Amino acid sequence: MERIAAAGNIEPPIYHLLLEKGYKLELKNHRVIARKDNLEIIANSAVELAGIILLRESKGENWKVSDEKIHEYLSFFENLK
Questions:
Q1: Whole-number Cα distances in Å, 52 to 1, 45, 79
Q2: Domain residue spans in the chain?
Q3: CA angle, corner 55, sides to 52 and 60, nearest 5?
Q4: If DSSP codes are grouped into helix, strand and coil, which group holds residue 8?
């Protein structure tokens, strides 16, 4: 089994992957901004940025989910508290 964890050593590969995918990256007000075509994505880190970009590339403009799916999500992560 291969294991990859969220740690500092994954951010440089993510940064370069996003550049290879054609995103222009910028730091502004302690946020990371990625732009490509007519799309601007803002996050707190390269890891967050990659997740948002994956969501947008996979789902397109219809990335939002129903209230039922939001409830499922909240129930799943409720045990982390």
A1: 26, 11, 24
A2: 8-80
A3: 120
A4: helix
- Of 2, 6, 36, nearest to 21 (Cα)? 36
* Spatial separation of the C-alpha atoms in residues 67 and 35, rounded to whole Å: 29
| Segment 44-60, tens digit of pLDDT | 999 999 999 999 999 99
pTM of the model: 0.85
User: 23-36, pLDDT tens digit by residue?
Assistant: 999 999 999 999 99
Which two three-digit tokens encode residue 26? 């910028």
3-state class (DSSP) for residue 66: coil
CA distances from 16 to 61, 68, 78 (A): 25, 36, 34
